[in-house]
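In the current project phase, the collection of sequences with tokenised folds has grown. A representative record is quoted in full directly below:
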Amino acid sequence: MQKYRDGPRLAVKLDSGEDFVSSILQIAEEEKVTGAFITSGIGMLRGTRIGYFIGDRYDERTYEQPHELVSLQGSLAIIDGKPHLHVHAALANRSHDVVGGHLFQGTVHVVVELLLTVFEDKKFGRTQSGPLLTLLDLEPTNG
């Protein structure tokens, strides 16, 4: 993994075999990021689990084969003092079919390159909205 921070911009390169979610959370802790948006991301993922929220649960699918990461956006906030990601991805397979949704997990296949926009000296939170959903809170009063 490589990272480069230039003020509010944090460029990240993840290498093959790295776990996407834990790598981003590790970088957030190292860089003391408490509020950010993932504004872009490309690369490849395998062993990817994505979901579509249907009200009371996620309809989840796992794609073991590598997929091109053609779009990635999300937010980073703090829950119970720890970084928490909410990320959506669009993934293209070898047939050029695209699937997408909430990204729960994925392993980097070849590379992932992404950009975070960090809100320095700002802490974003999450508010619980039902048993599975947490909503971004730009003005948290605790936590």
In short: The chain has a mean pLDDT of 95. The helical segments are 20-30. The longest strand covers residues 98-118. Residues 2-137 form a domain with the 60s Ribosomal Protein L30; Chain: A; fold (CATH 3.30.1330.80).
